[in-house]
Amino acid sequence: MSTLNDHVALVTAGGRGIGRAIALALARAGARIAVTARTTAEIEEVVAAITAEKGRAVALTADLTDRTVPARLVRDVAAALGPVDVLVNNAGVGSSSNPKPVAEFDDAFWELTLLVNLTVPYLLSKAVLPEMRKRRWGRIINIASINGKTGSLHGAAYAASKHGLLGLTRTLAQEVARDGITVNAICPGPVHTVMNDRRLAYDAERTGIALERLEHSLTAIGRRLEPEEIAPLAVYLASEDSRMVTGQAWNICGGMLMV
């Protein structure tokens, strides 16, 4: 696989879980990493882990719910490391924060979920495109979900936002295909993260199924994924080797979806 030497990657929500794993993997492939999240201590720990392995990284604390932040964040990355070559839109709000059926859904939570999961990737993509087009090279990787292809019981906002993210991925991929820029999505199944722990606990209580039994039943393989099992695909999609791959939504789901 080709390396990512001399490339700059911006990873949102990179302080833990999938974002952390992707940031570390991209750094090991040679990229300079800008990692952002709201929790400074977490992203500083990721930067420390990268620099301990002789990589280069910066931590940029940011609240992406502020619509003025995405464009400013991209400028801050350019000032610190250079223009963004690889954008990983990983920041997201999960259904576990406020699960409810549609008839009882919280409108404010709906708005927040669509803002973070769909509008923020849209704004960040707009912000990185001018420089990518100028250099005729770029990679945009959206972390979606298998719930971008199926429903999510009591998680309407999450499913709607992830379906929308796949629509954004495919449309943008068409628009920039001749500019040397690829746009793809990764659709994880249940991953062993804090967010998914909460969802699993909610479903166990709702169904009356023991937590361990429910966890084993989630995938055909019989367990949840680990964040580190998502990262290799992100590295591939960020590389020159994936230059003919665009507009795709890749499942990493332990066999939950086979169509």
What can you tell me about this protein's structure?
The chain is 45% helix and 15% strand. With 259 residues, the chain is α/β, with parallel strands linked by helices. It folds into two domains: 201 residues, Rossmann fold, CATH 3.40.50.720; 32 residues, no CATH class. The chain has a seven-stranded parallel sheet, sandwiched between helices. Strand 4, helix 4 and strand 5 form a beta-alpha-beta unit. Helix 1 packs parallel to helix 2, helix 1 crosses helix 8 and helix 4 runs parallel beside helix 5. The protein is globular and about 55 Å long. 47% of the residues are buried. The mean pLDDT is 96.
How many domains in all? Answer: 2
Order of the strands making up the biggest sheet: 3-2-1-4-5-6-7
Mean pLDDT: 96
CATH class of the largest domain: Alpha Beta
Q: Separation of termini? A: 28 Å
What descriptive keywords fit this protein?
alpha/beta; Rossmann fold; 259 residues; single chain
How are the elements arranged and paired?
Elements: E1 8-12, H1 17-28, E2 32-37, H2 40-52, E3 57-61, H3 69-80, E4 86-89, H4 107-135, E5 138-143, H5 156-176, E6 181-188, H6 194-207, H7 211-217, H8 231-238, E7 249-252
Parallel strand pairs: 1-2, 1-4, 2-3, 4-5, 5-6, 6-7
Helix pairs in contact: 1-2, 1-8, 4-5
Describe this structure in a few short sentences.
The chain is α/β, with parallel strands linked by helices and 259 residues long.
